[in-house]
UniProtKB/TrEMBL annotation, chain A:
Its cofactor is a divalent metal cation. This is Structure-specific endonuclease subunit slx1. PROSITE patterns: GIY_YIG. The lineage of its organism: Eukaryota, Fungi, Dikarya, Ascomycota, Pezizomycotina. Its main location: nucleus.
TrEMBL record, chain B:
Belongs to the SLX4 family. The gene is SLX4. This is Structure-specific endonuclease subunit SLX4. Regulatory subunit of the SLX1-SLX4 structure-specific endonuclease that resolves DNA secondary structures generated during DNA repair and recombination. Has endonuclease activity towards branched DNA substrates, introducing single-strand cuts in duplex DNA close to junctions with ss-DNA. Keywords: DNA damage, DNA recombination, DNA repair, Nucleus, Phosphoprotein.
Length: 402, 859
């Protein structure tokens, strides 16, 4: 990536989705997008740019019955999408040994892929798609990725569950999020209700960013707790603990080594989570990486985000200034959710922690009060705060699903 | 007159040839009997034809049609329905008709209709005997005459014959001999009458043409016997019909029933018979004989009455499932008969001694075993698996048994040469081995052969391998490079070498199924079957091992006894030494001896040169050489007695082993490495152990951990001594087994594909050994990634290391990564090899690291 000079930060959101016609349930479509909230109307013709395969009026409207989210790069998402669309060609779905003449799946657009006569799997059932999804998520390549499947439709999840029971190696539960009308929804923090509830921008990182920026700006005596060396944020990759009240800052390699020490597999290179040496909270590696990459690689965007947040907070502050007396209890309440939420990256911003630092309080003089309603409000706002334009992939060469 | 007509029909039918299913045939028979006109039906090719005419009137019409050669299907003028539709109904109709007919005065029909129910048969027979004798007889005569004319038809008639008879027979068998004796006399007339009917049946049956041709047997003798009214014959005939005969009829035997018939007629046991004892075909034969015996003896055994007889002794080795099943229906008399034969000597003697059924074994009485007991007995029986053709062809039970005997003999020889044990003990052990577990026989054979082909050191004894053995010694020298191992080896005594092999074999045996009991050391001989003789075996083996060790220790390295080799072996040896074939046995021997001497000297020289302590090499030689000498006689005896199969097996294994050994030679240090840690263990009892070929392969195969260790070692070396290229060692140690090679080949082919980048093209030049170590190279890559120094610390943020990129979920551009690895990364860890993008991609994907090609990186 350094060849290109400007490596991109980890996208705020990227997902592969399974689209289903509400008219005809057998019609399915697999796509990927960084912004399903925008993408779905495109498929439905409400906005420009829908895939051709979904343009038939007869089949509209479409619904996203599930999304696979948590891709750490657009490339990865596209690879997953391709593999899901072309299970018969994907090396990740093949047994060892059969992979010889399959063109590299990694080269998604490789023209040579045509060389092999394509098995015409014209119409594939929901079960088949879920089956492929299941085995993809278990494949060597993707199993280590921080992917999660979010179901929005109960019937689809039922099919999935049946399949999951049949398979010898079921997918771990923490990779599944029940959402939409699925019964038995677990973690309320993760449930968003519908596509529109998804947080597809860096909003959720605002608080984290704010905190880390602040922490690292004033890092004269900040030492990596692992190697006891003073961190140099401008030149080093410093990971900051997502917990609002934690001043933990570590070198990337130090922290990864510490996290991987607990893992059994010495071959593992990327940890999934670990215990912050500073605050002893379990922290999610992908979340920290998201923040780190955003902070290091997109400083302008970060500044924009923070400025917006500042402005917004001010506004809200003004709105709620009348009820200043509430501030105390609210602030207390906001501490706990912040700890929970930061663990699973779905819970955006509770930057206003009084415990953080006194001077911090004054410097950022905006926040003091956050209301509960504000969070919800923000997360449902249109996601165009940070305009990183990434095109959706159109599965145009794919066979037509009816 | 109907009878007359029938006769005519029958005669014609056989000649036309028979392929109508029995059932249809029976129906047709009925019809034919009922309706004389049907006689012409045989000419019609389709089996359905005979049924076409449901009514007599039809029948009359039919013949004319057939004569016209316009087949069927014109609706009979008198019949309303088209014949086709009626075909299905026909059986029923015919049956009904037959029933009606039976009600009619003609009793013959009755018998025919129910030929299989014995009771009805008897009763009817009696009735008919009285009433219709006169009538039936002429018919019979005519039939026989016709049959003779149609004599070629044998097959169908034969098959039918036994079936109908077997129907009776099964019944009779169940009724036990008593019944037989009782019924025998009254049956006489019935038989004569029945014969007529039977004949009818036979004739009619012959018509099934469309079906699989039945076995060819001549019906004649049977028929004549049937016609013969002598009680003995009739009885014999009935006895013949046992369930076994049914099975034999199903069995498509080349030997045919003729031999059986002959033997049956002869009555006395013959060699042939002995051979076929186990063969299902022979069961009926024995039955027959036994029946005769029972007659002579006065039904001693049959006194048990209703009980179905089954003698435990008969359990001796039934080689086929069929035989097993049929065994339950054979009379116990068989055994009495058999006991006189030689067969029992080598089967029954050993068997009862060890088997659980021992107690029952001596019991002459037929005992109906409870299902449980029967199952138990079955479990203990020997089973030879194989297709019928296999079992029938060269692997007749006797040959199998002889193979085993030969093996045992050779083993005993091995023991005996050391003068360890008395022959009786040896025999016992042999027997116990043979009886220990029947299921394991085949595997046991194989293992034994392979053992026979190898010496104590596990190397091949065969002539071809001699040079290989010599060649391995330098490899041992090579092994010396691993300092710690060498030292440990220096301490080894001959005994310990033996132990090593035993250990190996033990481990290998662990993999084998528990069925491979024979020759297992005492520790493993817990199984109930071997338990009886376990202790003697142990002793023998222990002593054997000890003595062998002693001899090994005392014996200096000696030349193989070439004089003991067969000519073929000698010539092979000569060829192995690279000489052209030499005429004359003596010359060959001389040449070989010279060769061996020179080689031997050379080997020791190399040892000296390599500064390897001679003790080691000597020890090895010592172990190798004596075993050679001991096993040579084995080979000889093998050559004499061994049946084809065994020979081929041994040769194949030996050649196999030779090639493998050649491939392994380089890697043999590994073996020693592996084995050396085992030195400390106590010696197992016997030296004779099976070294599985697969095991040797396994040895060559490195476990990942081993590889890793190796590389850590190398790495440490490299780091300490700078950039010492450890590649040499690695390539040499790299497993070269065929499977691995194949895999690597495929890998290379794959790796060559994505040679789009410049870095990849480099990789293409890499030889296959490079890629064989995909596993280690991936480890190396990991190491390189981790080792990437952060020298560029100030610019770390703008130029993250690969490790950091990976940690940050950056998609790894394969081309860049590969080139970095080749230029820098692998060098950091002292790895001289280079990697291709394909290898790198595999590495990335195996680790779940998002990777992509450069062209896609812009996504």
């Amino acid at each position: 990536m350094d060849v290109q000079g400007h490596p991109k930060p980890i996208p705020a959101y990227y997902c592969c989705y399974l689209l289903r016609s509400t008219v005809r349930h057998a019609s399915l479509y697999i796509g990927s997008t960084p912004n399903p909230i925008r993408r779905l109307p495109q498929h439905n013709g409400d906005a420009k740019g829908g895939a051709k395969r979904t343009s038939r009026d007869k089949l509209r409207p479409w619904e996203m019955v599930l999304v696979v989210e948590g891709f750490m790069s657009r490339v990865g998402a596209l690879q997953f999408e391709w593999a899901w669309q072309h299970p018969e060609k994907s090396r990740h779905l093949l047994e060892d040994g059969a992979e010889l003449d399959i063109q590299s799946q990694v080269a998604i657009n490789s023209k040579t892929g045509k060389a092999k006569p394509r098995a015409s799997r014209s119409r594939r059932s929901l079960t088949a798609h879920l089956e492929d999804l299941h085995s993809l998520l278990r494949s060597v390549y993707f199993v280590g990725w921080p992917l999660r499947v979010r179901f929005f439709r109960a019937d689809v999840h039922r099919v999935w569950r049946i399949w999951n029971e049949r398979v010898a190696v079921p997918l771990p539960d923490d990779k599944i999020i029940l959402d939409g009308d699925c019964p038995g929804q677990g973690n309320k923090d993760l449930v968003v209700g519908s596509i529109n509830g998804l947080s597809v921008d860096y909003t959720k990182l605002e608080a984290y960013l704010e905190k880390s920026m602040f922490l690292l700006d004033d890092a004269q005596d900040l030492r990596c707790k692992l190697c006891s060396v003073v961190v140099v944020p401008h030149t080093e990759q410093i990971v900051v603990c997502p917990h609002t009240n934690c001043r933990g800052a570590h070198h990337l390699l130090c922290l990864s080594k510490a996290f991987l020490k607990g893992a059994d597999d010495s071959d593992l290179l990327i940890p999934t989570r670990g215990v912050c040496p500073a605050c002893d909270n379990t922290v999610s590696w992908p979340l920290m990486m998201q923040e780190l990459s955003l902070r290091n690689r997109a400083e302008k965007e970060v500044r924009t985000i923070l400025r917006r947040k500042e402005r917004r907070d001010r506004k809200e502050n003004a709105n709620t200034s009348s009820s200043k007396d509430k501030a105390g209890p609210v602030r207390q309440a906001s501490v706990e959710p912040s700890q929970q939420g930061s663990r699973d990256q779905g819970y955006p911003m509770n930057a206003d922690d009084p415990l953080l630092a006194d001077d911090w309080y004054e410097e950022v003089d905006i926040e003091s009060d956050t209301e509960h309603g504000a969070q919800k409000h923000r997360s449902t706002q249109p996601p165009s705060r940070l305009e990183i334009v990434i095109e959706d992939s159109d599965w145009d060469d794919a066979e037509i699903i009816e | 007159m109907t009878s007359f007509a029938d006769v005519i029909i029958l005669s014609s039918s056989p000649s036309t040839s028979p392929c109508i299913p029995t059932r249809l045939a029976s129906n047709t028979v009925r019809e034919s009997r009922i309706l004389p006109e049907a006689t012409k039906t045989p000419s019609t090719p389709s089996p359905s034809e005979p049924f076409l005419p449901p009514s007599r009137s039809r029948f009359f019409d039919v013949p004319t049609r057939k004569d016209d050669a316009s087949k069927k299907k014109r609706p009979a003028t008198k019949t309303t329905a088209p014949s086709e539709s009626k075909e299905k109904d026909i059986p029923k109709k015919t049956r009904q008709k037959a029933r009606k007919v039976t009600n009619e005065p003609t009793h013959d029909v009755v018998e025919d209709l129910e030929p299989q129910s014995l009771d009805s048969d008897k009763t009817v027979a009696k009735k008919t005997a009285v009433s219709q004798k006169g009538r039936a007889k002429p018919r019979a005569k005519k039939e026989t005459g016709n049959l003779k004319l149609a004599g070629k038809v044998t097959k169908a008639s034969k098959s039918n014959d036994p079936q109908t008879k077997t129907g009776q027979k099964t019944a009779t068998v169940q009724n036990t001999p008593v019944d037989l004796t009782d019924t025998s006399e009254p049956k006489k007339p019935s038989n004569s009458l029945g014969k007529d009917e039977v004949l009818h049946l036979d004739e009619a049956m012959t018509r099934r043409r469309d079906w699989t041709p039945p076995r060819e047997t001549s019906p004649q003798p049977v028929d004549t016997m049937d016609n013969g009214t002598s009680p003995k014959e009739s009885r014999e005939f009935s006895a013949k019909g046992g369930f076994g005969s049914i099975l034999t009829d199903y069995n498509y035997s080349t030997s045919g029933s003729d031999a059986r018939e002959v033997s049956a007629n002869e009555g006395g046991p013959t060699k042939r018979r002995r051979i076929e004892l186990v063969d299902p075909q022979c069961q009926p034969l024995h039955n027959r004989n036994s029946k005769e015996d029972t007659l002579d003896q006065g039904d001693t055994s049959s006194s048990s009455g209703r009980q179905p007889k089954r003698k435990p002794k008969t359990q001796k080795r039934f080689t086929t499932l069929t035989a097993r099943m049929t065994a339950q229906y054979t009379s116990n008399d068989v055994e009495e008969d058999l006991s006189a034969d030689d067969i029992t000597q080598y089967i029954t003697k050993s068997k009862p001694r060890v088997s659980k059924t021992k107690t029952t074994g001596n019991d002459p009485e037929l005992i109906v075993l409870s299902p449980d007991a029967a199952f138990k007995a079955l479990d203990q029986q020997d089973v030879v698996f194989g297709t019928c053709s296999q079992l029938e062809r060269d692997d007749s039970p006797e040959t199998l048994r002889e193979i085993q005997r030969a093996i045992r003999a050779s083993e005993n020889l091995a023991f005996g040469e050391r003068g360890l044990s008395s022959s009786s003990v040896l025999e016992q052990t042999a027997r116990s081995q043979s009886t220990s577990s029947s299921m394991s026989r085949f595997t046991g054979d194989r293992n034994l052969w392979s053992v026979a082909g190898r010496d104590a050191a596990g190397s091949l004894v065969q002539a071809e391998t001699v040079d290989n053995i010599d060649l391995t010694e330098p490899s041992h020298v090579y092994k010396k490079k691993d300092a710690p191992k060498t030292t440990s080896r220096l301490d080894l005594s001959d005994d310990e070498w033996l132990e090593l092999d035993n250990e190996k074999a033990d481990t290998s045996r662990g993999k084998l199924s528990s069925s491979t009991k024979p020759l297992e050391p005492p520790a493993d001989s817990n199984s109930p079957t071997t338990a009886v003789l376990a202790s003697p075996v142990q002793d023998v083996q222990l002593t054997a091992a000890k003595s062998q060790q002693a001899t090994d220790a005392s014996q200096p390295a000696s030349m193989p006894q070439y004089s003991g080799f067969t000519d073929a072996e000698l010539s092979r040896q000569v060829a192995a030494y690279g000489f052209k074939s030499v005429k004359g046995r003596k010359k060959m021997i001389d040449l070989l001896q010279k060769c061996w001497e020179s080689k031997h000297g050379k080997a020791s020289q190399t040892v000296d040169v390599s500064s390897q302590p001679q003790l080691v090499s000597h020890a090895e030689i010592a172990t190798v050489a004596p075993s050679k000498t001991t096993t040579n006689p084995k080979a000889k005896s093998k050559g004499k007695t061994k049946p084809k199969k065994a020979a081929s097996m041994s040769t194949s294994t030996s050649t196999d082993a030779v090639t493998r050994r050649e491939t392994i030679m380089i890697t043999s240090p590994k073996r020693n490495q592996q084995s050396s840690p085992k030195v400390g263990r106590p010696p197992p009892s016997s030296y004779i152990d099976i070294e599985e070929i697969q095991d040797s392969e396994d040895e060559v195969f490195l476990s990942p951990s081993q590889v890793q260790n190796h590389y850590t070692e190398i790495f440490s070396n490299a780091t300490t001594s700078g950039q010492v290229p450890s590649l040499e060692i690695m390539t040499k140690d790299r497993p070269q087994t065929p499977t691995k090679r194949k895999a690597t080949a495929s890998k290379t082919s794959r790796s060559k594909k994505p040679s789009s980048s410049g870095a990849a093209s480099k990789k293409d030049e890499l030889s296959t050994p490079e890629c064989t170590s995909l596993l280690d190279i991936s480890i190396q890559i990991t190491k390189a990634v981790r080792a990437q120094p952060q020298l560029l610390a100030p610019s770390s943020r703008s130029r993250p290391t690969w490790h950091e990129k990976i940690l940050m979920y950056d998609p790894i551009v394969l081309e860049d990564f590969t080139s970095w690895l080749n230029v820098e990364g692998l060098g950091l860890i002292g790895e001289d090899r280079e990697v291709g993008t394909a290898v790198v991609r595999d590495w990335c994907e195996g680790k779940g690291i998002c990777c992509c090609w450069k062209k896609n990186a812009s996504w």
